Amino acid sequence: MRTGTRKRKPGPSRGTRVAGAALLGVLLLAACSDGGQDTGETAGDDAAGGAETVVEEEPEAPPAFAAEPAATLTEEAFTPPMPAAVLGDAVFLADHTGLTRFDAEGTETGRAEPEHPVIHIPDTIPEDSLDQAQAGVRSVQTPLAGELNGDPVVFSGFPVELPAGEGLEIIAADADTGERVWNTSFAPEKWGTAPPRVSASTSLLGYHDDLLILQIVKDRMMSSTYAVSVPDAAVAWSDTDAHFSLAVHEDVIIARQIVDGGLMGPLTGLSPVDGSVVWRKADDDTNGGAGFGPVLRVGLPDGLKSALVSAADGSVLVTDEDGLPTGSPHCVHDRAADIVVCGADSGAVAVAVDADGTVLWSLSRDDDGWSGVPTGTDEGIVFVDRGEDAPPVAVNAADGEVVNEDSGVAPALFGSGFGVVRDGPVLTLHPRAD
Fold first, then answer.
1. What is the model's pTM?
2. Largest alpha-carbon pair distance within the chain?
3. In angstroms, rounded to a whole number, what is the distance separating the alpha carbons of residues 221 and 234?
4. Over 50: is that where the pLDDT of 146 sits?
């Protein structure tokens, strides 16, 4: 398979080896041998052109996973967000009432549930997202990996019935056992007089200096941003009905100002320390937003195109003129390389940018290369789902080159020796095959 013509930033390709350390060692040895004098011994003969020992490296196996799953984690992940997180050799799967731990073989090894009774548990979940919205089904949000007293844990949030009325409870499950090791609960502002009528969901956006940043949505309309101190197990600050927070990256919460009685306004940067406004794009005409590391994918006014904007200040970095696919392309962020790759499943269209928004490479519709949806990344490798008519591929995030023309599957999450694949409501665990 050809990978097509690419526009890309020059630089070393994957697999380049630097031999500077070995060369430096030879030069130092030559300079330090008897003050540089030739004694006629073996070292001098080698320096004069003796045989060189060459050690060949074993070629790296192309990144791949077993096509057949080792285990099925769930067949009921109907709501849109990914309901799972991976921490080391374990998968944590959230549902409407708790958090379940699975080991690397897919065996259930622990479960954590809130202390208080969970509310807004749907009797049935329609498979279609529009039907879910009409039925008021609460989305199961993505768990968040973090720390508790220096130990790894996974956080998740639930609407619960508190002694004083409806509220929220955040729990932490131990990374090794899956048991609940921490929790805190509170009633969001205004819930006392106007509790959720249909549903309430809690998105854990990020973890910043012992603060959990939450976005709470009540009845799919009213939203609030909260910061919860993990050491204090208490609310540190709140922002009610003023901003809808989208993502957290480094020292900023990227949000939209709520204007005109609930409409999404301009992009705004909030301080995760106290919720104060750090920056605001007064002339912003974009809409929506999904965070991918250092960038945010937003919609443009015409409704047909997207852009990537900086999480640091909201400035536009990449548009379709730079190779970004139209519509709402799927993007993934590789933490190891700090590269964001966006792709579409129709036509050979993809683009990769670094943390500064510099385009590293792009594929156009005229290229005879791969096309598909990037599902996840692992140590600089992007896995791409190309649909039922072509096998998934593994692509180097730095240059867009295909490193495996059949990776078995295209996982969305990666653990120690396995990947997690999502196919609609079904989540499966696949061992590595490389």
1. 0.84
2. 95
3. 25
4. yes
Vertex 41, ends 36 and 47: CA angle to 5°? 55
CA distance 184 to 116: 10
DSSP letter string, 9-73: ---PPTT----HHHHHHHHHHHHHSGGG---SSHHHHHHTT-PPP--PPPPPPPP-B-SS-SEEE
| Listed residue (427, 429, 433, 404) closest to 415, CA to CA | 429
Structure tokens of 34?
A: 């008897």
Instruction: Match 């990227």 to its residue by tokens.
Output: 254
According to DSSP, the β-strands at 402-404 and 393-396 are antiparallel
pLDDT tens readout for residues 42-56: 334 444 455 566 666
* Predicted local confidence at residue 240, as pLDDT: 83
DSSP-derived 3-state class of residue 196:
coil
Can you tell me whether residue 75 is helix, strand or coil? coil
Q: What is the pLDDT of residues 189-216, one digit of tens each?
A: 878 777 888 778 889 999 999 999 999 9
Taking a C-beta distance cutoff of 8 angstroms, is the pair 87, 72 a contact?
A: no
pLDDT tens digits for 92-128? 999 999 999 999 999 999 999 999 999 988 878 777 7
Confidence of residue 307 (pLDDT cuts 50, 70, 90): very high
Which residue, chain included where needed, has tokens 């065996």? 107
Tokens of 75: 């067949």
In angstroms, the CA 322 to CA 340 distance is: 14
DSSP characters for 304-346?
S-EEEEETTT--EEE-GGGT--SSS-EEEEETTTTEEEEE-SS
Pairwise CA distance, residues 430 & 243, whole Å: 40
Average pLDDT estimate for 377-385: 96
